[in-house]
Amino acid sequence: MRTADFLYSLPPDLVAQQPAPKRDESRLMVLRRPGGSVEHRKFRDVLDHVRAGDVLVLNDSQVIRARLRGRNKKTAGEFEILLLEEVGVNDWWVMLRPGKRAHAQTQIAFQDRHEKITEVGATVIETNTEGHRRLQFTGTHNIVNELERLGEIPLPPYIKRTDASADQVDAERYQTVYANTAGSVAAPTAGLHFTLQLLKEVRAREVQICHVTLHVGLGTFAPVKADNLADHVMHEERYSVDEEIAHAVNAAKNEGRRIIAIGTTSMRVLESAADPVTGKLHPGSGRTKIFIHPPYCFKIADALLTNFHLPCSTLLMLVSAFAAPGESRGRELILSAYAEAIRERYRFFSYGDAMLIV
């Protein structure tokens, strides 16, 4: 398939710039795969679509304050730094702008959120083929411990902020209520709609809730640049599945109970850790570059809760694959549903509304 097959036109005013007033007051489109029919509901109505015995799989990765600002110690030129992946303590791969000014041995002094230069610094020690820089941090025992003081919430580029006071709102709302394992630079956005009370009500319906971890990387926002999907190189992300969770999922599958993936990141964990022959979910941790696009046969999940995704993104391709497993027509089903969402003025992307595919 071609990347251009997943292009659609979205009015700019439908890109959600703010979260819904309350998490569970977002809208919910329910897409039924057999006939492609859709229903328009409120997110709280997800309770009507779960039943006793279901297993919800949520990604508990926590978004870190990954965006830092600093100055070149020699020229005082400004840098914006986005932490990408920890190599070791005070040793990180980052995206750094402007990159052309960050050659090897460039020294950076970091600012706090009030633009005051701090004692924390870093030296550029390496550049990779993607143009990312490797930084060695100094002036702190561990840069992770300084992020609350120095870092900003790494909102995606399509969310614009001009008022610094919005940072506290984003710090709360660009994070799931069950986030527990720090490491993401982007939120697993399908989970943003849940409140603790709603999760309590889900459990009261004898639905089991399981947590896996996938640390969402910057590549989640990256469009597919290759003309043909077969030529796309997927970004890599770290994941883990506890033995207890794997046992619960496998037991549910053996008993014919439904597995509902909450978000594309949870789906990526399930498919990455699934045995390619038996479909059994294996516990453990690792790194995944799995690229799910039509046609694809899913091994674990029976339903998917997700948001509305960017044109030509790998996430749009994944939900298209899930809309018609093993076939190519899922693209048409999803783009048709998106067209209706646009007509109905749904809100799109990270802070937008949700879709349940059953």
Describe what you observe in this structure.
The chain has 2 domains: 248 residues, QueA-like; 84 residues, QueA-like (Thrombin, subunit H), CATH 2.40.10.240. A hairpin with a 2-residue loop joins strand 6 and strand 7. The chain is globular. The protein is of the alpha/beta class and 358 residues long.
Write the layout of secondary structure elements.
Elements: E1 27-32, E2 37-42, E3 55-59, E4 61-63, E5 67-72, E6 78-88, E7 91-97, E8 107-111, E9 117-127, E10 133-138, H1 147-150, H2 166-173, E11 181-184, H3 196-204, E12 208-214, E13 237-241, H4 243-254, E14 259-262, H5 264-273, E15 284-288, E16 303-307, H6 314-323, H7 330-343, E17 354-357
